[in-house]
Amino acid sequence: MTEGSVRMSERSANITAPGRDNPIVSDLADDANQANDARKPVLLTFRGASVLIVWVLTLGAIVASLAQVVLVRRGILLPSQGLFLGFVTAGVCLIAATFDAASGRVPNTLTLWAVLIGFALNLLLPVLHGLGWHVAGDWLGGVGPLGSLKGFAACGAVGLLCMLAAGMGGGDVKLLAGVGALLGMETALRVLCNGLIAATLFALVNIVWTGRLNNTLRFMATSLMSLYLTQKRLPLPGVAPTHVPLAVPLLIGLVIVPFWSVEQLVAWLR
Known about the structure:
Blueprint: H1 3-16, H2 23-39, H3 46-73, H4 84-103, H5 108-130, H6 134-140, H7 144-166, H8 170-183, H9 185-209, H10 213-230, H11 247-256, H12 262-269
Helix pairs in contact: 3-4, 3-5, 4-5, 4-8, 4-11, 5-6, 5-7, 5-8, 7-8, 7-9, 8-9, 9-11
């Protein structure tokens, strides 16, 4: 074997030999491990969700009390209009949005707690009024057990339809049902409508900002033609067709629902 052949063999052995001493193999292994870690979902245990819910309830009670005192004194809010459940819902949506942004998933433990808290607090409402504690009952801002059940059923049904028709994620469906259990059907649907408008505006701004508006419109037209001709749906490039993030639009819709609603938009259009 010639000297050149020996050198080539040594180089190939250094490149392909496994082990921690080989820098090339180590770098590739580190990259693979980082990629696997990035794909792992951020999980929230039942205990962790319980701690977060306790913080949400505590901070929600403090902020709701302070806000109600200020708004009632300024004549913006009536004493019978409670804010506690609204702030609890905002806290749940904020946590869900954080996990959704970090992992693309809404934890099941969080949505389970949202449903349970919604049922429990709204069930407490007639008890407080029955005991004569009307101030405490009004402070909750609940809709009662029947209203909570209607909100859970209506929002859950809307979420299921969106999951079947538009590929909404299961976590988003459960989050929507939890919001319905907390706020009741009427308020939750207003929040959802405002959230969908906010999500649409955000999507349009995002598309225009990244310069993809023309390509997206062209692809949508092609997809509609393909769907009509071949009965097959084509996903948008670079966008997961089965994931529709909902936590952030719901939070935005909840914040603006006291000041603006779809009914006002319809009245303005008329």
